[in-house]
Design goal:
Blueprint (H helix, E strand, L loop, with lengths): L5 H28 L3 H6 L12 H7 L4 H37 L3 H15 L6 H10 L6 H26 L3 H8 L4 H12 L1 H17 L2 H6 L8 H12 L3 H31 L5
Helix pairs in contact: 1-13, 4-5, 4-7, 4-10, 4-12, 5-7, 7-10, 8-9, 10-13, 12-13
Length: 280
């Protein structure tokens, strides 16, 4: 039986204070984004705006100006690259993990270990040969090239996450579908893959966060092109704003909203994935 003690009260107070301390920067970010330039410089950081305005967001997302247009184009580019990368990782990662975990041949175990080694190695080690290969194939400076690069870089992570779930999946589901006349591919897409929704949510969120927030790869492979991702555009744009903190806060919120919305949409599967996922 639970007993409410003084120690519990102290722990609750400490937890609340820690939560407020962690949320304080987000409060400053939100209230600053809805202030005018003069209010940001003359009012306390924690003070809410006296007259909230959306002009900062309208200025950033308006296609009228060159700099503003870059923010909007960067947002669209990041969405396309992130969505394409996540889709490819879910499809190819699940297929590769299924084959490697269900195969009884010796090569499958060795191939799985190769994927595990690729997780440990830093991706920066292969930047130069990867750039040369992508340039020779005409993939530098294009969203398609970025999707292929991110898929190759994060495929070991997807295989690792899917592989753990496939190992816990009882074979009875697949055997029953095979007896009913389903092919191996039909068994995977109609029986196995729907049961992997917790793993799919985990892979999608983790990969989406990595791709969305990545700065280094996009800076190298999209340098000089019109297809700049939002982190790169933010870096250039914030550097030109100097002390216009209301616009800086607004552009940070713009970069956070899409990935937060995606997390809210997929958080149930993500939590299931960390909690153990599939139960037979």
């Amino acid at each position: 039986m639970f007993t409410y003690t003084k120690r519990t009260l102290v722990l609750e107070i400490v937890t609340i204070l820690a939560a407020l301390l962690l949320l304080a920067p987000f409060w400053i970010l939100i209230v600053g984004a809805f202030k005018t330039g003069d209010q940001v410089l003359t009012t306390p950081a924690f003070a809410p705006p006296t007259a909230p305005t959306l002009s900062n967001f309208a200025q950033l997302l308006s296609p009228s100006g060159a700099s503003s247009g870059n923010i909007l184009l960067g947002l669209v580019t990041s969405v396309l690259i992130t969505a394409g990368s996540v889709l490819c990782l879910v499809v190819f990662g699940s297929l590769a993990a299924y084959v490697l975990t269900r195969s009884t041949r010796r090569w499958s175990t060795r191939a799985y270990y190769v994927f595990m080694v690729a997780i440990v190695l830093p991706t920066q080690l292969g930047t130069l040969p990867l750039y040369i290969g992508a340039r020779n194939l005409g993939l530098v400076g294009s969203p398609l090239g970025m999707v292929l690069i991110y898929t190759g870089q994060l495929l070991p992570l997807a295989v690792f996450l899917y592989g753990g779930f496939f190992r816990r999946l009882p074979l009875e589901y697949e055997e029953a579908a095979t007896i009913d006349g389903a092919s191996r591919l039909q068994v995977f897409w109609r029986v196995v893959f729907p049961l992997m929704s917790p793993a799919t949510g985990t892979v999608a969120i983790l990969a989406g966060l990595i791709v969305w927030n990545d700065f280094f790869t996009a800076l190298i492979f999209l340098n000089g092109s019109d297809w700049q991702t939002l982190p790169v555009v933010m870096y250039n744009y914030v550097g030109s704003l100097v002390s216009q903190w209301n616009l800086i806060f607004a552009v940070v919120i713009i970069s956070m909203v899409p990935i937060l919305a995606f997390y809210v949409f997929a958080q149930k599967r993500f939590i299931q994935g960390y909690a153990g996922g599939l139960k037979s």
